[in-house]
Amino acid sequence: MIIIKKVQNYKLIEEISKEKEFITYLGIDNRNDKLLSIKAVLKINVEQNKDLSNSLEEEIKILKDLKHKNITRLKDIAKTKNNIYIISEYCNGGQLSDLLKYYHETNKNPLNEIYIQKIIRQISSGLEYIHSKNIIHRGITLENIAINFDKYPNVVIKGKMPQKVKYSEITLNDHFILKIDNMEFSKDLKNAKSTKTFIDNPKNMAPDMLSGKSYNNKIDLWS
Which has the closest alpha carbon to 148: 57, 62, 41, 35? Predict the structure, then answer.
């Protein structure tokens, strides 16, 4: 196990993904050996970019208020001289897009309806909760839906990393849970009924936002 960096109670051991504004790592909580997802944002970028600063502040504020089984749970916020770290639950099945891509490449038939029912039911449950808080996600894509399988542990045992999920071994009887992830585009409407705020996120963007009209949480259903 190669440790990239240590941050307070956490170890960063593997880069999961890299975006323009941040890097997401696979991490370990030193106190209980549980795996975590750790997003690192450079402080200098936050200080020099007002939009990024406001977005990050809004994301953290929203995450602290969300507690639902179908939403990725915020665990902690850590700060160092150079970075801000957003520490969240880790899902061992990757993104829903990964599972669907695998299924598409290895099966000639459409995804089984039983799977589809489970997927839609869980995403709907998470969205209903977010909307009950008068929050819009504004980034509902397959890449922003994380998936976790119970049969694969999310904790390091005796210094050994857990086995990674093998989609080829998954059956319809396996229990999995979906979690709406990545709240960077989210907006708390507070007492307002709608907003006109535009975000540069063209994938799955509802026509209301694209046309500059006022919109509400229904745009998440479009996505």
Answer: 35
CB 97 within 8 A of CB 54: no
Q: Is residue 13 domain-shared with residue 29, that is, in the same domain?
A: yes
- Examine the domain organization and report whether 75 and 155 are in the same domain: no
Nearest to 177, CA basis, from 161, 154, 160: 154
Domain that holds residue 213: 96-222
pTM: 0.90
Choose the final residue of a domain: 89, 110, 141: 89
Same domain? For 204 and 110 the reply is yes
36, 55, 89: which is the final residue of a domain? Answer: 89
Residue 100 shares a structural domain with residue 70: no
Do residue 123 and residue 38 come from a single domain? Answer: no
Per residue of the chain (223 residues), give pLDDT as tens.
Answer: 778 899 999 999 999 988 878 899 999 999 999 999 999 999 998 999 998 899 899 999 999 999 999 999 999 999 999 999 999 999 999 999 999 999 888 987 778 888 899 999 999 999 999 999 999 999 999 999 999 999 999 999 888 899 889 998 888 788 999 999 999 889 999 888 898 888 766 677 888 888 888 999 999 999 8
